[in-house]
Specification:
7-stranded antiparallel beta sheet, about 40% helix, alpha/beta
C-alpha cells in the first residue's frame, strides 16, 4: 500500500460511498471467466483457488484471500483443480473535504480506491458474515428506503477490516529468508500451541503458500511445521505431567488436543510410553531437582554452545549438510529448546543418513524435494557452468545469462521450456496442473507469485512474462522477460536463444509446422470453402463468451486458421480477443461449426432441446463440439500441439458419424 494507515483511514472517514454492488459466482474446475470492472472492487475468494490475471499481472489466489482492484480493471479468472467460489464487491468512493481541510490524495495513484493490493483476513469468518449480509441486503433492494443505508453500513465494516488487516500483515510480508519465516512461525506456534492448527491454517497466518512454508521448515530444520508443533505440545505435556496432578483430559485440552484418548495416542507415539506410565516413572524416580528434569527436553549438547560456533564441529556431530546447520544456528536457541529440537538436530546419525529422528526414537525418511537433497551436486555443477556466460537481448535490454542454465524458474513459460528438453526447478502451480503436461512436472516446485519461494530455489535464471515483477526477479537471479501474448513460434525461438537450446527450438518448430500443415489438410476435407467456425464459452448460460483468435480461440482460429463468422470478426477487438454476448444473439454469431468450451468432466448440455441453440444449423447438423475449456486455456507449445490433435480427431470422428446417418 502506498499511503500510510492514518491517511488511509482518514480517506474512508470522509469518503462519499455510492453505487455499491455485490456479485456472487461459482466456477467449476478449469472454468474461465473474463470481465472488466468499471468501479473499484474487492475480489474475495471464499473457496478453492484461482489464477487471476489482473491488468496483465498474474496472481495465484487461495481461499481466505482478498484482492482489491482499481476501476476499469480487466480480470481473467481461471479456477483450479477444486473449482472456486468468489464474491466481487464493487463501489465508487470520492473524498469530500470539509471546510478548512488540506488537500488529500490529489495524486490518483495514492488514492486507496485506485491501488491494487492483497489481503488475507485475520478473521475470515467475520468477513464471510459481512459479505453474506451484504448479499441478503442487496436482494431486498426493492423492499424499503433503508436498504441502501444498510448496505453502506456493512460496506464500511468491510473496509475497516480490510485496512486493519492489511497493515496488520505488513510485517509478515517483509520476511525475506527461510530462517526468518521459520523463526516467526515458531514464535507464533509457541504463543498459540493450544489452538487447532493445520499446515494450511499456519500458511494463511504467515501469508505464505503451504508448500513454501513446508519447504522452508525442511530447509532450515529438516522437518515440517506440524512435526515441530507436535514436539512443542509434547514438551508442554511432559512438563504438566511432571509438575502437576492435572487429569489427562485437562492436559490434553490445554495443549490443543480434542480429548484425552487422542492425546494419549499421540503422546505414546512420540515418547514411546503412555502419559500415565511416563508420570508414574517420574514419580517413582522422585525427580525434584532441576537437573533431574532436564531429560524432558534433552540436555543442551555442547555443539550448540555459542563459543563452539564451528561449522566443522557441527558437521562432525551431525553428519548433515553445512547449509542446514548454518540455518539452524541462526534460529534462536531458546526457540529450539522450547520445541525439543536441539538434541535431534545434533543426533542425525552418519553422513549418509537422510532421515530425521522422531519423538519415538525411530527415523523418518526426509521427503524434502530432490532439488534440495541434491543441492550440493547441483551447486557444484552451477559453479562449473556459470564460469561461461552469454548475453542475450530482450525487450528489457541486454541480459547476461548462464551459458548452460541448470536451475531455471519461470512463472508463465513452463510448457515452453519443457518443450525444449529443459526441466525448470520452479513454476506457477496452475500451469503445473495443465493436463497436457501430465507426467512431465514431477519434482518442480510451486512458486506461485512468491519471491521467497523463488529465492529458496537458488535459481540461476528466471524467465518471466510479468513486466511488473521483472525488477524484483532481477534481484534474485538473471532475469529475461518474454511477451506472454506473443505468437508461440516467436516464444520458442527466443527461448531457444535464452536457454542455449537453439537446435532444439529449430527441431521443434520444424516438427510443429509439419503437424500443423498435416492437420489443415485433414480438416480441409471436412470444412468446405465458405463455411465458418465459431468458438463460444458458457454452454446454455444466459450470457456467453465469444472468442476471436485469442484465448480459447487461439488454436482454432490462429494456428489452424479456421475461418471466423464475419459478425465475430467485426465485433471483437483484436487487442482484447473476446466479448460477452447474450445467448439470444448466438444465431448472429454461430458459424457452420461451433466449438463450445465447458467443464468437460462436469458439464454437457442438450443443445437440440434448447429454444435458442436448437435453431442453429450447427446444432441441427450435429456440428457443435464441446471442448474442455480448462485444457484450451493453456497456450504453450506442448498444449497447442495437443489441442490441434484433439480438434482434428474430434472433427474426423464426428464426420464419420454424420456420414453414416
Amino acid at each position: 500500500m502506498i499511503i500510510e494507515q492514518q491517511e488511509h483511514f482518514r480517506f474512508w472517514e470522509q469518503a462519499n460511498i455510492r453505487d455499491i454492488h455485490v456479485e456472487h459466482a461459482l466456477l467449476a474446475k478449469g472454468q474461465r471467466k473474463l470481465f472488466t470492472i468499471q468501479s473499484s472492487s474487492f475480489f474475495c475468494i471464499r473457496r478453492g483457488n484461482l489464477l487471476v490475471l489482473l491488468n496483465q499481472k498474474l496472481y495465484s489466489i487461495n481461499h481466505f484471500e482478498i484482492i482489491h482492484a482499481p476501476p476499469k480493471s480487466r480480470f481473467e479468472v481461471n479456477a483450479g483443480s477444486e473449482g472456486a467460489e468468489y464474491i466481487v464487491i464493487s463501489y465508487k468512493a470520492e473524498w469530500v473535504p470539509t471546510y478548512g481541510d488540506e488537500p488529500l490524495l490529489l495524486d490518483k495513484h495514492r488514492n486507496p480506491t485506485y491501488v491494487t493490493y492483497r489481503v488475507t483476513p485475520t478473521q475470515p469468518m467475520m468477513i464471510y458474515e459481512i459479505t453474506d449480509r451484504m448479499l441478503e441486503i442487496q436482494e431486498q433492494q426493492e423492499h424499503g428506503p433503508s436498504v441502501p443505508l444498510q448496505l453502506k453500513a456493512s460496506f464500511y465494516q468491510w473496509v475497516y477490516h480490510m485496512v486493519h488487516d492489511f497493515y496488520l500483515q505488513s510485517p509478515i510480508v517483509k520476511i525475506a529468508s527461510p530462517v526468518e519465516l521459520v523463526t516467526l512461525t515458531l514464535e507464533y506456534m509457541l504463543k498459540n500451541y493450544a489452538k487447532p492448527h493445520t499446515l494450511d491454517s499456519l500458511a494463511i497466518v504467515m501469508q505464505r503458500s503451504p508448500g513454501h512454508l513446508s519447504n522452508c521448515f525442511k530447509q532450515v530444520l529438516n522437518r515440517g511445521p506440524i512435526d515441530c508443533l507436535i514436539r512443542l505440545r509434547m514438551q508442554k505435556a511432559c512438563k504438566l505431567l511432571v509438575e502437576t496432578k492435572l487429569p489427562l483430559r485437562i492436559i490434553a485440552s490445554s495443549i490443543g488436543y480434542q480429548d484425552a484418548y487422542y492425546f494419549s495416542n499421540a503422546f505414546k507415539k512420540y515418547m514411546g510410553v503412555s502419559p500415565q506410565k511416563y508420570r508414574k516413572q517420574i514419580v517413582e524416580e522422585d525427580v525434584t531437582s532441576l537437573a533431574g528434569r532436564n531429560h524432558i527436553v534433552g540436555s543442551l549438547p555442547p555443539c550448540y554452545i555459542p563459543l563452539c560456533d564451528n561449522d566443522n564441529y557441527y558437521q562432525h556431530l551431525d553428519g548433515g549438510s553445512d547449509d542446514m546447520l548454518r540455518n539452524i544456528k541462526r534460529v534462536p536457541i531458546a526457540l529450539l529448546m522450547a520445541f525439543g529440537l536441539l538434541l535431534s538436530a545434533c543426533s542425525g546419525g552418519s553422513s549418509g543418513n537422510t532421515g530425521a529422528a522422531t519423538g519415538d526414537g525411530s527415523t523418518a525418511q526426509s521427503d524434502a524435494p530432490s532439488s534440495q537433497v541434491n543441492s550440493t551436486s547441483e551447486n557444484n555443477t552451477n559453479e562449473n557452468t556459470q564460469a561461461t556466460t552469454r548475453k542475450v537481448n530482450s525487450s528489457m535490454g541486454e541480459v547476461e545469462v548462464p551459458a548452460n542454465p541448470q536451475r531455471v524458474v519461470t512463472d508463465f513459460f513452463l510448457g515452453h521450456i519443457l518443450a525444449l528438453d529443459v526441466k525448470p526447478v520452479g513454476s506457477n502451480g496452475v500451469f503445473m496442473q495443465n493436463p497436457y503436461l501430465e507426467g512431465k512436472v514431477s519434482g518442480i516446485e510451486d512458486i506461485s507469485d512468491n519471491l521467497e519461494a523463488i529465492t529458496a530455489l537458488s535459481p540461476d535464471l528466471i524467465v518471466t512474462g510479468d513486466a511488473k515483477s521483472y525488477d524484483a526477479y532481477s534481484k534474485i537471479a538473471p532475469t529475461v522477460f518474454l511477451d506472454n501474448s506473443a505468437p508461440v513460434r516467436d516464444q520458442v525461438k527466443e527461448l531457444g536463444v535464452i536457454l542455449g537450446k537453439e537446435a532444439e527450438a529449430s527441431a521443434w518448430l520444424t516438427d510443429f509446422e509439419q503437424k500443423v500443415t498435416s492437420a489443415k489438410e485433414r480438416l480441409s476435407s471436412i470444412i468446405k470453402e465458405g463455411e465458418t467456425v465459431t468458438v463460444f464459452d458458457g454452454g446454455l448460460s444466459k450470457d456467453i463468451t465469444l472468442y476471436g483468435n485469442a484465448h480459447t480461440g487461439r488454436t482454432i482460429h490462429g494456428e489452424l486458421d479456421l475461418p471466423m463468422n464475419e459478425n465475430v470478426e467485426r465485433s471483437i477487438d483484436p487487442k482484447v480477443g473476446w466479448a460477452t454476448i447474450s445467448n439470444e444473439l448466438a444465431d448472429s454469431y454461430a458459424g457452420d461449426y461451433v466449438f463450445m468450451a465447458v467443464n468437460a468432466k462436469a458439464e454437457s448440455y442438450d443443445y437440440a432441446s434448447d429454444p435458442v441453440w436448437g435453431t442453429l444449423d450447427a446444432v441441427k447438423n450435429n456440428e457443435l463440439y464441446e471442448i474442455d475449456g480448462y485444457k484450451f486455456y493453456f497456450s504453450d507449445p506442448i498444449s497447442v500441439m495437443g489441442q490441434i490433435q484433439d480438434i482434428v480427431e474430434m472433427m474426423e470422428e464426428r464426420n464419420q458419424e454424420n456420414s453414416k446417418s
